[in-house]
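Reopening this ticket.

The earlier resolution said the output was attached, but the attachment link was broken on my side. Pasting everything inline this time so it's all in one place.
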Amino acid sequence: MLDKLEFLEEKYKDLNAKISDPEIISQTSKWQKYVKEHAEIEPIVQKYREYKEVSDGIEDAKEMLKDKLEDDFRDMVKEELNELQKKEETLREGMKLMLIPKDPNDDKNVIMEIRAGAGGDEAGIFAGDLFRMYSRYTERQGWKMELMSSNEQGVGGFKEIILLIKGKGAFSKLKYESGVHRVQRVPATESGGRIHTSTATVAVLPEADDIDIEVSQNDLRIDVYRSSGNGGQSVNTTDSAVRITHEPTGIVVSCQDEKSQLKNKDKAMRILKARLYDKMQAEQNAEIAQARKSQVGSGDRSAKIRTYNFQQGRITDHRINMTVYKLDSFLDGDIGEMLDALITTDQAEKLKELNG
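Inline output:
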């Protein structure tokens, strides 16, 4: 652990020099990257420096106790040594927690994509339930939500809905929601009272900015067309809908919810950047994820993460084997307890790996 801290202190000194270098200051995006990195490691470097001071104090006290001292003075040194050793242990534990690799995306806004999975109309209705659940949670957190794109189905609910959620630490909490959500209930259309199982997939992407990813205009094909669906007559009279294709990856994003072509294009670009950034990170992290024992927060969107059982009024998260019996309030956005448990488990797993 001390080797890692020594390395971080050297890196901190190096970053100090870089952010003061006029040549780097003139390159805005590079300078911003270094400033951000500097700010991220500063707290642990300060804690490490405090730890080294305390360790030096312990060595000094031990050296003093080797000499012949008057009883009163010896007792005073012993007491101080005891206090310093307690402080050293507290600092050591604190540094361990701070050494857990911080997700660089934790403070970012979120682009959340909810899609109906298996189960026909019922899956779309469940996707709508999840949308309302996250809307209510967003309100409880004091965050803001913006609709980016939606594709409604005729009987209520959504085939797909894409949202932008803005708020401090939004990604740090919502990233654990990526995966397949399963619902077990009797649909309103089911006369025989049989329980149906349906699914919806949630993807939680960090909103990417220009520092994270650059998109060349030469790689884009942009098509405009008439909006369709429930936009109203005014939406359908102009070519306001926008489809952007990123040709190197084949990723396609369409937006038609706004009456303005410019607004639709802006929303489509933000979704595209988030998807490209997510793809880039997934490729970079593939080897790390393979080596990691913990699956919490891995963002595997093919994994079944949670079951919502209406008959029993329970929600079970399969990653941490946690069940709560408060379905109504949970679907009303009271999901904080579950998210906190996921964060705690993830931190514990990472701490175990760090110690291992």
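Reporter confirms the inline version is readable. The chain has a mean pLDDT of 85. The longest strand covers residues 196-206.
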